[in-house]
Amino acid sequence: MAIRVLSNDALPDVVSALRSYLEEEGTQPSIRAGALAVAAPIVGDRVRMVNRGWSFSIQGIKEALGWERIEVINDFTAVAHALPRLEASHRHQIGAGEPQANAPLGVIGPGTGLGVSGLIPYRSGWIPLASEGGHVTLAPMNDAEAAVLGRLRAHFGHVSAERAVSGPGLVEIYHSLAALAGDVASDRTPAEITARASHGEDRYAAQAVDMFFCFLGTVAGDLALTLGARGGIYLAGGILPQVAEALAGSRFRERFVDKGRYRRYLETLPTYLLTHPVPALLGLRALVRFGGFVTDRADRQIAAS
Fold first, then answer.
1. pTM to 2 decimal places
2. Which of 138, 171, 172, 213 is positioned for an S-S bond with 252, CB 3.0–4.6 A?
3. Among 3.30.420.40, 2.160.20.60, 3.30.465.10, 3.40.50.300, what is the CATH number of 5-78+279-304?
4. How far is CA 285 from the centre of its chain?
């Protein structure tokens, strides 16, 4: 699979990204179809990306590139497609629990936003979910979290899980904790906050990372209960593989199972950190190969950042 990582900021739109990739890679034989995974709900022909100022027409891409067919799915629906095809080396278990065969699977992952999807077993295959579960309302579990969410609510109105459990969300937690302590935090990127937390250089960074993992555990536990995900919950996205050690040592798993009367139920469910470098592309390839969608070069896809 020929993979290139392109910078969204250097490109004006999706068609330009596709053309840039195809020109660099060459098209022998000529590509007549493609599959895209995008961070947006797919409803009709016009797709508007939530955390990027891009919108495009699916039909417009076909016409611009001269393709005969195109499949466009949500990025985490693509990740869900990949789950049954992962090797053991592509996941790292966090905490206890054993997967149940032929049971639903859930996947959730923070990056620029918060992606959520799942797989439901059906006959001899799976039904992937096109979910926008990252936008469910986030609930606090203690007074400190309530104070942070109250500050976010004053600024944003509705506080979704994505407002806190994402790269921008980690920054919001960081600044909120400082403000609630009567302090002003310096501007930091998510990577800087996690680095300062790991080095013990910044108490607000350490508190923010801890709260971030706790929120993630709560939302992942909600997803597990909603889907009845006895096959396990997979953690994906661009952030978590970079902080795998901190995640493993965090309170994520404790918060995952902290559901009162359903604690014992959740204790039996495994949680995994997904370590495959490009799971969405693995899922797209599965869609292309096994979903009745055939192209000349089925492995040609784009990874954009």
1. 0.88
2. 213
3. 3.30.420.40
4. 18
